[in-house]
Structure formats: C-alpha cells, structure tokens
Amino acid sequence: MRKLSFFFIYILFTCNLIFSQNINLNQDFLINQIRTSQLENLNFTDYSFNFRNIQVSNIKDYDYFSIKKFYPTIFSTKNKKLILKLLPLDYVSEFSSHHPYNRNNGSLIPNRGYQQIISPGFFIKYGPLSINIKPEFLYAENKSFDGFPLSHYPVIWVAKLSQFNNIDIPERFGNKSHNEILLGQSSVKLTFKNISIGISNENIWWGPSLRNSIMMSNHARGFKHITINTEKPIKSKIGSFEFQLVTGRLEPSRYLPPNHDMIFQGRSIYIPKINQVGEVDDWRFFQGLNISFSPSFIKGFYIGFIRWTQMYSALFEGRYTWMNYKTNYLPVFSNLFRKNDISVDTEGQIDQAAGMYFRWVWEDSKAEIYGEFHYNDSKQNLRDLLLDSDHARGFTLGLQKIFKQNLKFSWEWTQLQQTSSRLLREAGSWYRHSYVYHGYTNYGEVLGAGIGPGSNSQYLSITKFDKLNSLTLAFEIIDQDNDFFISAFENAKDYRRYWKDYNFHIYYQRQLKNFLARINFIYSRNLNYQWELEDSTFDPYYRPGKDVNNLFIGLNLIYQFFK
Q1: Is residue 349 packed enough to be buried (19+ CB in 10 Å), middle (13-18) or exposed (0-12)?
Q2: 438, 283 in Cβ contact below 8 A?
C-alpha cells in the first residue's frame, strides 16, 4: 500500500500531462457548432463526436473560433503544474404554455410555465488531477396542466397505470415549484496520457445522433458515476479507438403517477415500486460501456458498440439470497446472449440493452451520415439474432449536408415503437422493464431518447449560418407512445386516437460580445392530445379529437468572463 501511494505521489509531481476539461451538455449548441465546423473542413479532428460531453483537448482553433477564450486561465504557476480556469456562466431557461415540451435539457424537469438553470464554475488542474466545479441552480414553476384525462374509460386507465408500473416517468413532479442546488456538471478526475479515471455527475451522450440518442442522452439529469474513458482517440496502425466505461447509481423520482389510487374490479392497479425484498424506491446499480473504432483505411468512418445493464441495489449486493447470483462488479462484460444465463430467474431481474452505431464523415462532400441500431433485450443466441432481428429493436438514422452559401440541411428519423414481432413475442416498450420497475430512468426521466417509450420521430431542418451566427427552421413529427395506444385501444379497434405532434421550430443563434446566445421558438399542434376523443353515437365515426396548441420558448446563454 505504501509503494502504491508513493507511485501516485510520484506521478502527481512528475507527470506533465493533458488535463480533463469538458464542454458540458448545457452547452450543446456550442458542441453542434464545433461538429458543423468539422463538416466545413475547418476543424477536421479525428474525434468521433460519439462521446459527449467533449474534451477541450480534442478541439482545434480555427479562423473565427478559439476554444481557449471560452476557458480563460486566471492563475498558473510557471511550470504549469497548477492551473486555475474560470468556466463560462451557463444559463438555460424554458417556457411552455399549455403542457411540458421536454427534450434533452439535463436537470430541467417536465414543466409547464417557466424554469431555469444557472451554472457558474471553475476548473483546477494540479498535475494529472483535474477538478471541475460546475453546480446548477434550478428553479421551476411546475404549474398544473391537463394530463391523462379522467374521461378515459376505466379499462384505458388500467392500461395506462399498468405501464406506470414498469417505468418511473411521472406526469408531473409534485404539485409545488422546485428550487434546488444540484451537483450539475461537476467532476474529479485523474488523467494519464489519453486515459482518464474519476468520479462525476456530468451528463453523458453516447452515439452519433443529434436529436434522439437511444442509449444515453442528457434528457435526464446527470447521475453520480465512476468513469474510465479516453480523453483523446488512441491511435494505432489499424486505426484509432475511443471508449468509456461508466458505473453509477440511478435514483427514483419518488413522485406518483396520476390517479394512482384507482381501484378496478376490487384491486389497486398502480403498484408501488417495491424490489424483491420489500424495499420501496431502491436505487439501481448501473454500468455502461461505449467503444468506438475508426479504421485508418476509411477516413472519417466510425463504428461503435454500446451496452448497458442495470439492477436494483438489493440484487447487486446479494440480498436476493434465494437466487443463484454472485455479485458481479462488471456485469456489462457478461452474458451478451441468454444462453449463457446461470439462472433464468436471476437474469430476468437485470435490465439491459445493447447495439451498434456508425458515423461517416465525407470530407469532400461536407456531409455526414450516421445511424444507431439497438436492442432493449438480450437475444437467446446468434441464431435468434439472425432470425428475429426486428424483435425489441430501436433505431435512428440521420444525415447532415452543407451546401454553398453556408446552408446546412439536417434530417433524423428515430423509431422506438415495437415491430410486428410483438404479435408473437412481446418485447416490451423501450426503457420499461418487468422487474426493474423504475425502468431506464434517473430522477423520473428517461436516460435515452427524449421522445420516450413507444414513440417515433421525424426531424428536418435547414440552417443558414455565418461563423457563430445562425438561423434554423425545422419541422418535427412525433408519434407519441404508439405502444401504449395499440395496447390500450386494440380490443376496441379504435384507430382514430393516434396522438401525433407537429412541431415547427425557429432557432436563432448569435454572438454578442461576451455572450453566445441561442433562442428557440417551437409552436406545437398536438392532435388527439393524450389520445382523447369524445365518443358519440350521433357524430361521424372518424372525427377530430382533442387538439391543442403549445408554445415553447427556450433560451441558452454562454457568458465568457474574458474575451
């Protein structure tokens, strides 16, 4: 132990290494700007953009942008062993008029009315030790709104509450405003050459998608975790590698769904989220792995693999004593196929997902294409994978292209709705689970795609940009939880009630002296909101349901203290 301590002290005082400083996901529009510069051939780094937040060391300055100016050094020793930097002030605010519009906003909650995050911070480096202090001050009005209506028939409420039994995504986060101080995007890490290890609460985004990352996004607030990751791509003769291994703790929201005390046919429909030893709202052990490879013989091409597992802490700690389970500290490396399960009962208590992704940047064409294809459950074996390849799958496909006159076109398509294989073999909706009753969530929000379980999305945008300034027009169509819609209304054969959102976006981004600002206006026309339709024997059968309008306004500011 004394030798090991001496080794780390020696490294601390003798190594002159890169340090772990990130562009966090509250600054996602800055990350997208840097990604656009890669397509412009202004910043053609070998960084994949499949791991976000982004290490500053991966970003090169170009003619109208300097990353160093965003993170000014306010003190350093002559030998650069000790460095103190002042981080930009992040300000994120949102307003929704009728009901929450909630996408990829970190610690912000599903909220009607006004909410905001203010996040100051500073960065300290001493040798290989990096400390990132970036708390968040959250305020949310959390006004009441029209949610899932009591006018639905009891049998429809049974279907809705049954789904709430398998996931922790409350409709409203209590009935009071929120005023909280959070750890935010803070971390402590040790970095040796290209490898970093540390503890963090930062949001994570895995994969190439811009709107809907299926496996990990910043839709929910960050969670406490240990991370081992590459700071920069590790180069070899065959290509470059990047990876991140995350082990963390996921928390429950502790909020109840609407009408949770409903009794139907003499029994309660909503069941409190109790693990197998009778504990309510147990925390969950999470482990995830993301590996990306860029072959040296295909320029700009990246291919990757993601897998994550989660289980209640009681199982991880061995307190399900009647089950044949030995604590596995690296479950993400075990049992990729069900044929390797030691115990069917034990493995059924573990929620997991895995899949592949790719991103291909065409430098000459100033374009990129990307995709993700994942499964929310394990296959029995390789033959099962080959025969029933659509079962339990979700995918995203997207592209970006820069044309002349600084015009950028973007398109992204995500599908999480179950496929026709559900008729023979129920897969369950993405992010829900039969035994991990909180689903794939943290503090009541999905950790993956912001559209949520059973939903689909199409997104088109055109951007006119000039350096850091830009104007974007976008159109988005979202099928809201078709898995629930089909399960709730298939017996009635009621095909009229699809809930579909048509969203019209305007983004305006501009640099004003020390501010980099983006404002976002979204007008939403929500058809059959909450699948609501008044039944009547006198009206035509196929008629409009409850259609509502919603206005969303978002403002993101990054303030540089020195410019």
Answers
A1: buried
A2: no
